[in-house]
Description:
This protein is α+β, with helices and mostly antiparallel strands. The chain is 25% helix and 25% strand. The protein has helices at 15-31, 33-36, 91-105, 118-121, and strands at residues 6-8, 46-50, 53-67, 70-82, 110-113. It has a 5-stranded mixed β-sheet.
Amino acid sequence: MPLNLEIRSPDRSESKALCVFEFGEQKAESWGHRITASHYDWQTSRIGLLDGEIVSHVAIYDVNMRIGSAIVRSGGVNLVYTVKAHRGKGIMRAVFESSLDAMRANGYDTSVIVNGIRDFYTKFGYVFTWPRSSYTVATDDMPQEEPSLAVRAFKSVSHNDRH
Length: 163
């Protein structure tokens, strides 16, 4: 790992640079809401910088998860990326471990990853809970009759947002 690697939480003032880092110049504006208008946890997410430039990022999303009858605070791990030229140097390991420490320090009960790379995340104690599956059904193979379920409207909808 480079000795001059700085690891810290990103600042909201860096949101444009972070969006460009993750999505590229062309898509930063249209995809940036995944960081700027979401459950992105600015305090717990981590960036790795070399000479002031972002070279690695781990996004943590603050979400509630139901496990049985309990609701737990879960850190949703996403947007894990290191610039290609800096891969294989231990940078992501250091940035990821810092995000795990930050989740513990900031009161997360659990953490989940969707679409994780098995050989990478298992090093940090993550386990796969279901296999990746993909199902394709041709339109001609779908039932022709309408489904036998009753659709009903909600009387009211509310959202409990901590942010």
